[in-house]
Write a structure and sequence with these properties.
A 3-stranded mixed sheet has the order 1-2-3. The protein has one domain: GMP Synthetase, Chain A, domain 3 (2-Layer Sandwich), CATH 3.30.300. Helix content is 37%, strand content 22%. The termini are far apart. The protein is α+β, with helices and mostly antiparallel strands. The protein has 3 helices and 3 strands, in the order ααββαβ.
């Protein structure tokens, strides 16, 4: 169980995303924070990383691993890539709302 609210997680991810995205930037891509729901962080890989065959590996082995080290070891990161299993939920938390 995540000991933080979705708003707290969103703020922590937003703060740490610039450090986390260095690897992705080095490959011509970027990371867009979409929102948080029940402790799950929803992102979109953009630029050259969008649709790349290694995007799942990048999401789990780079983005998720680094955010877990900064925020919480049980944090889950999901790349919203258009597949049904990686869909953004309807009632997620985001600052833009």
């Amino acid at each position: 169980m995540m000991p933080f609210s979705d708003e707290e997680i969103y703020q922590a991810v937003e703060f740490n995303l610039p450090k986390t995205s260095e690897y992705v930037k080095s490959h011509g891509g970027g990371i867009k924070l979409l929102g948080v729901k029940d402790g799950k962080v929803y992102i979109e890989l953009i630029g050259t990383c969008h649709g790349c065959s290694m995007s799942l590996m990048t999401t789990k082995m780079v983005v998720q691993r680094e955010l877990r080290s900064y925020i919480h070891p049980e944090l889950e990161v999901i790349n919203v890539d258009g597949t049904p299993e990686n869909k953004l939920p309807d009632d997620f938390y985001t600052k833009q709302k």
